[in-house]
Structures are given as C-alpha cells and as structure tokens.
C-alpha cells in the first residue's frame, strides 16, 4: 500500500511524506513498513509544484496533521526516492488511491529525478476502483491513527480494502 501526502493534487505535486506498507489483501496482515518526510525545498528544486489551494487546505488541518511535516526531520526527495526503491520490488502489486494520484505523482517524481520506478507498472492497483464495488464498507470503516499521516493512512486503507476483498470473494 502506498500513500503520499502532497502539496497539490496535480501530476507533478510536491511530496511531503511517503508511506508504504507490505500487506496481504486476503487477510489484511501487514509486513514491513516505510515512512519518510520529504524536504519541500528539494521537491521545488526538482521541479515539483505547490498548489495554493492545497497549501490553504493544509493550514486548516488539525495541529497533529500539520506537525507531521513541519516538526519532523525530512530528507531530500532524491534520497527518499532511493529509499523507496530499496523498499519496493518488481514483484509487488502497488495499491494507491488511483494510479493517477499516489502511483502517478510518485512515478513523476522518479522520472524528474532520472530514476526508474521500482515497481512493475502493470501491477498498479486502484483503491478507488475496489471501493466502488462496496462503498458502504469504507464508509463504515473506523479510521485509527492520524489522518494525513502517510503511514497511518496506508494502514487504514489496508483495513478497508482487505475487508472489501473478503466481502467480494465470500461465498
């Protein structure tokens, strides 16, 4: 599972944090986790962009959400991408909130940095498509952790995606 926190929703949005969690879609059991805060200036230097409306949106979020990227140590985007590449492998299915958002924005950052994506593009999976088959499950699934923390959001998404998967594959 991949989740990004960004400073925009366009395809070249600046990334402020990246979360990844290995998981089994059938059971919801999780494995290794990855989380990093990304230095915003390094994203701008790479050519990624900040959207004013998203910046305003972040300013309206609760203190905990804002502190996730203002009070933690961050690393340059190139280092974060190298770390993502070490975490991922081509055997993974990579789930994100649409191929155009999480997967697409991260792929564009890899492209801007002159790096290959560390997953097989044919194994990209869309959470939004899965949710569309049983939207009531997500609507009633209790979020734990902190909203807008990329790692906590991964775990939340794993929870409701696995529940939807089991529902769709039940007898």
Give a verbal description of the structure.
The chain is of the alpha+beta class and 171 residues long. The protein has a single domain (2-168), classed as Nucleotidyltransferase, domain 5, CATH 3.30.420.10. It is built from eight helices and five strands. The protein has helices at 40-46, 52-59, 63-70, 77-87, 98-112, 127-132, 135-139, 150-168, and strands at residues 2-6, 15-23, 30-37, 94-96, 124-126. It has a three-stranded antiparallel sheet, sandwiched between helices. Helix 5 links the parallel strand 4 (94-96) and strand 5. The chain starts with a strand and ends with a helix. The model has no long low-confidence stretch (mean pLDDT 94).
Q: Summary?
A:
This protein is an alpha+beta fold and 171 residues long. The chain has eight helices and five strands; from the N terminus they run βββααααβαβααα. The strands form two sheets. Strands 1-2-3 form a three-stranded antiparallel beta sheet, sandwiched between helices. A two-stranded parallel sheet has the order 4-5.
Note the main attributes of this structure.
171 residues; alpha+beta; Nucleotidyltransferase, domain 5; two-stranded parallel sheet; 8 helices; globular; RNaseH-like_sf; nucleic acid binding; Endodeoxyribonuclease
Portion in beta strands: 15-25%
Tally of separate domains: 1
Shape: globular
| Count of beta strands | 5
By CATH's scheme, which homologous superfamily applies?
A: Ribonuclease H-like superfamily/Ribonuclease H
Cross-sheet strand order for the largest sheet: 1-2-3
- Name of the CATH architecture: 2-Layer Sandwich
CATH topology: Nucleotidyltransferase, domain 5
User: For this structure, what is the CATH class?
Assistant: Alpha Beta
Derived from helix and strand composition plus strand pairing, the structural class reads: alpha+beta
Query: What value does the Rg take, in angstroms?
Result: 16 Å
Low-confidence stretches are none
Helix content: 40-55%
Largest sheet: 3 strands, antiparallel
What is the number of helical segments per DSSP (H or I, 4+ residues)?
8
The average pLDDT score comes to: 94
Order of helices and strands: EEEHHHHEHEHHH
How far is the N terminus from the C terminus?
26 Å
Protein name: Endodeoxyribonuclease
GO molecular function, one term: nucleic acid binding
Domain 3'-5' exoribonuclease Rv2179c-like: 1-165
């Amino acid at each position: 599972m991949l989740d990004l926190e960004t400073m925009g929703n366009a395809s070249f949005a600046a990334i402020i944090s990246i979360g990844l969690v290995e998981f089994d879609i059938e059971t919801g059991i999780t494995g290794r986790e990855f989380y990093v805060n990304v230095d915003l200036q390094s994203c701008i230097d790479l050519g990624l962009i900040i959207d004013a409306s998203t910046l305003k949106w972040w300013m309206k979020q609760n203190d905990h959400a804002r502190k996730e990227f203002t009070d933690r140590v961050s690393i340059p985007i190139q280092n974060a991408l190298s770390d993502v590449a070490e975490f991922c492998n081509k055997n993974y299915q990579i789930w994100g909130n649409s191929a155009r958002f999480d997967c697409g924005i991260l792929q564009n950052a890899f492209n801007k940095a002159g790096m290959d994506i560390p997953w097989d593009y044919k194994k990209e999976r869309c959470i939004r498509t899965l949710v569309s088959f049983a939207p009531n499950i997500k609507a009633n699934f209790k979020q734990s952790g902190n909203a807008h923390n990329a790692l906590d959001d991964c775990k939340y998404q794993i929870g409701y995606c696995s529940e939807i998967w089991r529902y769709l594959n039940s007898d």
